[in-house]
Automatic annotation (TrEMBL):
Keywords: DNA damage, DNA repair, DNA replication, Ligase, Signal. Residues 130-153 are annotated as: Disordered. InterPro entries: DNA_ligase_OB, NA-bd_OB-fold, NAD_dep_DNA_ligaseB. It comes from the Eukaryota. Gene3D superfamilies: Nucleic acid-binding proteins. One of its GO terms (molecular function) is ligase activity. Residues 65-126 form the DNA ligase OB-like domain. It holds the Pfam family DNA_ligase_OB_2. Residues 1-18 form the signal peptide. GO terms for biological process: DNA repair; DNA replication. The keyword Signal applies. This is DNA ligase OB-like domain-containing protein.
Length: 153
């Protein structure tokens, strides 16, 4: 069994025991519906569990790197299916930064949530989507969409 310590809006919720993965996923969805963003699971250590979404975007440009990325690509400028633009700064290896996806390439990225403007927050590059001809936005559940008020306790 795994002990779950649920932290919601900076206060502790009573711990509960879980035996099935389905229970953990239900609790995560419940916490997210209340405005929380993650679960902390204690089992031989501490596991931080949160939902990530995958989506696709078209590479529209680059921004030169700074610091350790000087001389190579620092940021991929991208556009999602809805036409909104955003930047992907993480997830690229040094090799990929030296030879980034070509402009017009569709990439797969993951993110934690959408900003109020509808663009992904904290996007991270995963791979090129070589089998895609158009990008597809993530299917974000209603309770996780920007501007939706958390459910009442």
């Amino acid at each position: 069994m795994t002990m779950i310590h649920l932290a919601l809006l900076s206060h502790m919720v009573s711990p509960s025991l879980v035996q099935l993965e389905e229970h953990v996923l239900e609790k995560l969805k419940e916490i997210e519906g209340l405005g929380g963003e993650s679960l902390m699971l204690r089992h031989l250590g501490l596991v931080h569990m949160r939902t990530f979404y995958n989506a696709e975007a078209i590479v529209t440009g680059y921004v030169a790197g700074k610091g350790k990325n000087t001389g190579i690509t620092g940021v991929l400028k991208c556009m999602i299916a809805s036409g909104k633009t955003f930047s992907v700064e993480t997830g690229l290896s040094d090799k990929q930064r030296r030879n980034p996806p070509k402009i017009g390439t569709i990439i797969v990225y993951c993110f934690q949530e959408l900003a109020l403007s509808g663009v992904p927050r904290f996007p991270s590059y995963i791979s090129e989507a070589v089998d895609k001809t158009e990008p597809k936005d993530a299917e974000v559940p209603e309770h996780r969409k920007p501007g939706v008020k958390p459910a009442e306790k």
